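dumping this here so i dont lose it
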């Protein structure tokens, strides 16, 4: 079965793509699952990059903030004509910004439009940290996707930094339920510019999750600029990072010179997960790069947590022989972890 046949089946509206269980399929172009519900029946996709499977919203345009804002549930923009209720807004300065207010964090954020009143745009989440007049506001019309039972993703382009197995970009209410890992890809699952994403039943205990990029910052799940991302009921054993959040990674068609990589992830939830490392690894299994707003890590066993942002750690077993089990970065970061 070719990728053209798989794509045709998806485009026909079928919710289940019946592929023989655990069989591998070589694909040379990206499978587009935008606004689709697809059950991959545990098939393994071998791709030549840069993206095997994608769901992607539409870039609409941009405007700018016309006033500083903080501690409120709306922003004021210079032109609201292209902003619709339900749109995803990405606030970003034009470069990396060190914020004394949130040590090691960057300004910006990803928001959903809840209502409009003239040039006042009401958003969720609310504006917790200062956003400055002149900041660019990128506008996306969101897509969605529901993906189930992905047997694995294998990249033929070893060591390609931008390789990504599954890309969710500018999506709302997307779900990935059942994913058995990735091989050779820099990112197994990349979530960027998304809102309310649910990732569950990740089970990467086979050799599919053995990354071969050296030196390595490889990620089974990489959450870039997004808000409200939930990872639950998952298990991974990895030589590299099992899971990361914090806004360090974006893929897809970004507006030129957007500086979008400075945008943080907001409100991460990790619950009922077991992330273990192989004996040879010295990597943290949950690494928050530090430019997020808050992380909530609960009821989990994680071999090594690196976290730079505010948040809550409850009922978590974190062991890391020879190193700190939980490492907190940022000298002026508010000490709100427990």
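and the seq i came up w/
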């Amino acid at each position: 079965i070719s990728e053209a046949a798989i794509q045709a089946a998806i485009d026909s509206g079928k919710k289940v793509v019946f592929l023989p269980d655990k069989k591998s399929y070589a694909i040379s172009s990206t499978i587009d699952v935008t606004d689709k519900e697809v059950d991959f029946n545990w098939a393994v996709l071998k791709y030549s990059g840069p993206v095997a499977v994608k769901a992607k919203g539409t870039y609409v345009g941009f405007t700018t903030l016309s006033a500083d804002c903080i501690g409120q549930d709306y922003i004021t923009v210079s032109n609201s004509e292209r902003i619709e209720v339900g749109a995803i807004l990405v606030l970003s300065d034009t470069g990396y910004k060190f914020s004394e207010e949130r040590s090691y964090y960057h300004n910006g954020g990803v928001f959903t439009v809840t209502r409009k009143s003239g040039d006042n745009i009401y958003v969720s989440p609310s504006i917790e940290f200062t956003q400055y007049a002149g900041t660019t506001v990128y506008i996306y019309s969101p897509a969605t996707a529901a993906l189930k039972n992905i047997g694995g993703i294998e990249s033929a382009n070893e060591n390609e930094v931008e390789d990504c197995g599954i890309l969710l970009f500018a999506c709302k209410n997307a779900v990935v339920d059942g994913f058995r890992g990735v091989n050779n890809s820099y990112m197994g699952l990349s979530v960027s510019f998304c809102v309310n994403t649910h990732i569950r039943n990740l089970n990467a205990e086979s050799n599919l999750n053995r990354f071969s990029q050296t030196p390595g910052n490889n990620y089974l799940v990489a959450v870039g600029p997004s808000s409200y991302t939930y990872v639950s009921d998952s298990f991974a054993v990895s030589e590299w990072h099992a899971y990361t959040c914090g806004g360090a990674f974006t893929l897809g068609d970004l507006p030129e010179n957007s500086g979008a990589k400075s945008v943080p992830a907001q409100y991460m939830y990790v619950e009922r997960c077991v992330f273990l490392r192989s004996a040879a690894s010295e990597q943290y299994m949950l690494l928050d790069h530090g430019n997020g707003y808050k992380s909530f890590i609960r009821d989990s066993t994680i071999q090594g947590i690196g976290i730079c942002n505010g948040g809550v750690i409850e009922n978590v077993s974190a062991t890391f022989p020879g190193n700190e089990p939980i490492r907190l970065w940022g000298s002026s970061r508010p000490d709100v972890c427990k």
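Residues 3-11 form the longest helix (9 residues).
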